Amino acid sequence: MPRVVEVLLDLAIELELTNDELLGLAGFLTEVGRADEFMLLSDVLGLSRVVDDQTHAGATGTDSAVLGPFYRPDAPWLDNPGRLAAPAEPGQLLIVRGRITDAASGAPLSGAVVDLWQSNTAGDYSNENAALDPFNLRGRLRADRDGRYEVETVAPVPYQVKHDGPVGRLLLALGRHAWRPAHLHYRVSASGHWPLTTMAYFEGDPYLETDTINGVKPALVLHLEPGPGGVSTATFDVALAPESDPARMPS
């Protein structure tokens, strides 16, 4: 706290902050709190990305990413190969497959749990749209004995973060958009390894370079392979750091 106070006072002096500006800042932060948008504010300011990077600094294995506000535990179990999207779910079919391995040895992690969630083609997650099934486009599956998993879903689409409140007004004032590139969320865990929270993005997305939360990492961008019948495929391999890796903190 002494360091935070020091930085705030130095910044107030540097910017010649006035009483009216201080009152405006206090009012803005009060409104952010009332709207429950503090984590959203952290995301769009890039603070969440910086803290996540520092939390996992020096870690081995697949790059991490922020959890985001839409995770829901205890998603239903799927077969492997499995289907994340219900048969009637609109959207272009997408198959994502890969292997879960030990980051140190490369050995497959049989039985590793792959927890997946995503938005629908309207950009909605199930816990922000009461009309959707609570576990729409959510599921868990276990990797086979070779560490492999495969899931069929619908291709996610870019969407805008909540922008009808104080954080949205801030983005507008800064001349920034509210768009996130299309992505799949992953939480992967296996016995004796640090759990990993990450996201998979897709090449060609128009918002990869300007993601409003600056969450895209090059290693997490997947190649899409067109297939018959309009079904695309992508490969996302995940390497988990063993618990002996002191740099990997649980996420």
Explain this structure.
With about 250 residues, this protein is of the alpha/beta class. The longest helix has 16 residues. It folds into two domains: about 30 residues, no CATH class; about 210 residues, Sandwich (Protocatechuate 3,4-Dioxygenase, subunit A). Strands 1, 2, 5, 11 and 12 form a five-stranded mixed sheet that branches. A five-stranded mixed sheet has the order 4-3-8-9-10, with no helix packed on it. A two-stranded antiparallel ribbon has the order 6-7.
Ordered list of secondary-structure elements with their pairings:
Elements: H1 2-14, H2 19-34, H3 38-44, H4 47-55, E1 82-83, E2 93-102, E3 113-117, E4 138-142, E5 148-154, E6 159-160, H5 166-173, E7 179-180, E8 183-189, E9 196-202, E10 221-222, E11 232-235, E12 238-240
Parallel strand pairs: 1-5, 2-11, 2-12, 9-10
Antiparallel strand pairs: 2-5, 3-4, 3-8, 6-7, 8-9
Query: What's the order of the H and E elements?
Result: HHHHEEEEEEHEEEEEE
Compute the number of structural domains: 2
How many helices? The count is 5
**CATH architecture classification name of the largest domain:** Sandwich
Distance between the termini: 25 Å
* Highest-level CATH class of the largest domain: Mainly Beta
**Strand elements, count:** 12
Rg result: 20 Å
Main sheet overview = 5 strands, mixed
Shape: globular
Helix content: 10-25%
Class per helix and strand makeup: alpha/beta
Name the beta content range. 15-25%
Overall pLDDT metric: 96
| CATH fold call of the largest domain | Protocatechuate 3,4-Dioxygenase, subunit A
Residue runs with pLDDT of under 50 for 5 or more positions: none
Write out the CATH superfamily name of the largest domain: Aromatic compound dioxygenase
